[in-house]
Amino acid sequence: MTYKKGDKVLFVNDTNKATVIEVFPDGRVKVEDENGFDYIVRGNELMKEHPAFSKAIDRIDEYDISIAAAKDQVKRSKLQLEALSAPAFVKHGPDVLEVDLHIENLVDHPKKLSNGEIVEIQLRMFERMLQKAIEQKKRRAIFIHGVGQGVLRAEIRQLLEFYPNVDFHDASYQLYGYGATEVIIRQRSF
């Protein structure tokens, strides 16, 4: 992806936002984050900010906040109940996290996005939710990606190769058809 001075970007492995200050010929990019700190990173560590994507990230954050609040309080406030009753894209149990990566569950107006932007949003959501599953010590995570042309499935499986403590395979055909990947998480014992 090419960047130019002034582009609003997100870090691929983080939710921080930044602005492009300078682009170097070797593909590195100098950015200034929201706190005023400058970083020089490789271009593939960034992605252009898209309003629909930011809204999806905000929904994930709202979901995380509502789950944390539910653990601390028996009674839920009206705001928390609204957040929990929003269109669900994540289901969880004691040992399993199930995430539906269909774009219509992640953004409000998916028809305004290019195919590349859609896959970028879905992959970002996948990585973030896999990290959540690992942090929450889940044993399994199911990622529902659909069948389509197999692009998202292939990208997810390519990313999973970089996680040393996971195994993956097609999820149950009876439950998900051909459109889901099950990730088995081997928690480290220290």
Describe the structure.
With 190 residues, this protein is an alpha+beta fold. 34% of the residues lie in helices and 26% in strands. The protein has 5 helices and 10 strands; from the N terminus they run βββββααββαβαβαβ. The chain has helices at 51-72, 78-85, 115-135, 151-160, 173-176; strands at 8-11, 17-23, 28-33, 38-42, 46-48, 90-92, 96-100, 140-144, 166-170, 180-185. It is globular. The protein starts with 7 loop residues before the first strand and ends in a 5-residue tail after the last strand.
Layout of SSEs?
Blueprint: E1 8-11, E2 17-23, E3 28-33, E4 38-42, E5 46-48, H1 51-72, H2 78-85, E6 90-92, E7 96-100, H3 115-135, E8 140-144, H4 151-160, E9 166-170, H5 173-176, E10 180-185
Parallel strand pairs: 7-8
Antiparallel strand pairs: 1-2, 1-5, 2-3, 3-4, 6-7, 8-10, 9-10
Structural class: alpha+beta
Name the helicity range.
25-40%
State the separation between the terminal residues, measured CA to CA.
40 Å
**Average of pLDDT:** 77
Tell me what portion of residues adopts beta-strand conformation: 25-35%
Strand order of the largest sheet: 4-3-2-1-5
Basic shape: globular
Low-confidence stretches: 71-88
Number of E strands: 10
Q: How do the SSEs run, as a string of H and E?
A: EEEEEHHEEHEHEHE
- Measured on Cα atoms, how large is the radius of gyration? 18 Å
Largest sheet, strands/sense/barrel = 5 strands, antiparallel
Helix count, DSSP H or I runs of 4 or more residues: 5
